[in-house]
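# step 3/5: fold
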Amino acid sequence: MVEILRDSVWQFVGVILALISLGGMFLIYGLQRRTKELAFGLISSRRPIAIADELSSRVTVQLDGQTVEHLYLQVYGFKNSGHHAIAPTDFERPLSITFKAGHIVSAQIASQRPPNLEARLTISTSRIELAPLLLNPGDQLLIQVLLSSERPASSLDARILDVPLVAPINRAPRLPRFLDSGLPTLILMILGLSLAFLFFDEQKGKETFYISLGLAGFIMFFGLFSRWWQDSGKSARRRMSDD
């Protein structure tokens, strides 16, 4: 057993794992730095009423007595994705979403967390303004917009103290759980092949086994670390759904 622990390959694997752990400490320190950040983005966009082309000339849609065409139901999200609160006095002017074409049929706060966020909207034909409000870390709200436009496109105008740029929402893809990612199968395959080498050639098989053990450990660390990063890093803070 002592000879195994003194093996140069095993010592090399130990050094690699130590370096990885040291890098992880620096990453944790970076994540714990307090930042001020606001995230915004389009959560979902769909056609609430779909009419076949051959029937479009024969069917009209009316809302409050007015005919509307090319309806889109869009949901936009705002979230304090940083570690600092954003106070009402931090806003130089209200946040605004401007639509470049078409007109707004209706807009409302679909949900807000916490419920007493008291978000208030001012709506015009092509513009929605969100009044300055207190956003503690993790506070979020969804704005549901019914838009009449052939090609819906919008832009955000925001000027907030110590927030030079508004971060995008839901930009990073979601990773599968570690057990569903296929990495455990890969680890078992690597260890199985190394045991086969050990069975046919004890000397070379021992070296192969040590290398495979280190590789399997790195794969496991990488898979678990990636999942942890997703659940605690910027991508997690910037995620929202339209539920």
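# step 4/5: annotate
The mean pLDDT is 77.
# step 5/5: archive (pending)
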